[in-house]
Amino acid sequence: MQDLLYFLQQLINGLTIGSTYALIAIGYTMVYGIIGMINFAHGEIYMIGAYTALIAITGLAALGIAWLPLILIVALVCAMIVSSSMGWAVERVAYRPVRGRHRLIPLISAIGMSIFLQNYVHLAQGSRNIGFPALIEGGFRFGSADSFQTSISYMQITIFITTLICMSLLSLFISRSRIGRACRAVSQDLGMASLLGIDTNRIISATFVIGAALAAVAGLLLGMYYGSIDPLFGFIAGLKAFTAAVLGGIGSIPGAMLGGLILGVAESMTSGYLSGEYKDVVSFGLLILILLFKPTGLLGKPEVEKI
Fold it and tell me: Which residue ranges run through the membrane (predicted)?
């Protein structure tokens, strides 16, 4: 019974982290699905969203506002607005001028933007860790008091519910809305979509904005979950989210969701049963293993060369 409770605890922890990886991974996979490029500045946008949420929470606390729902809503809205604006700016500055050129040029441009944003936050906020207030505390415990207990915190429940809502809304948006249908058309054939009257530049910008908004949600959630942020906060999470997107099938939104969950559970199980030092080894080893047998990822589809 104790072994089962311990396994459930690691599964809960893994799904918690995997849910946030999935939110960030969607930004990578949507951009790649539309223009076939990797937005390596996406992790820094996620980090900026976390810092924006912290600044909003601090400002509300200074004003004497203590009502938790209002604090969370304002922090989330501010983070999404700033991150979305940053995502739009990254597309305009780092991608649009070099779109259509050799793929190496946009890649270098994106890496340069990532370094710029990372150092900008480093200069503006300092290099030290900044504590993030634990706004949501408490939880449930299962098991007898004299043995191992499985716990699930209210923060973890909040992450699950928020992720589920965001994924559902994104799926409805992509399948039902006019912009969503245009996104699917552009991802299939950008040139033909342009000939049919779709404003491809606007659709590509919208893709960056949507991905950045979801990254901001993940930034607020993980900031509260871990309790601290720093200028490198986005680099590691962005790398893991990119791994999740490739694992699930880069360009596939369901694949990004699945890849994030698998990666989170793999890390948690490794930390729980082996050691936290091996979690990255197992995660990237799993990625290599899957790509050896299925190069397009779990749910990815091979590209069809148009002649």
Answer: 20-38, 45-65, 71-90, 102-121, 154-174, 203-226
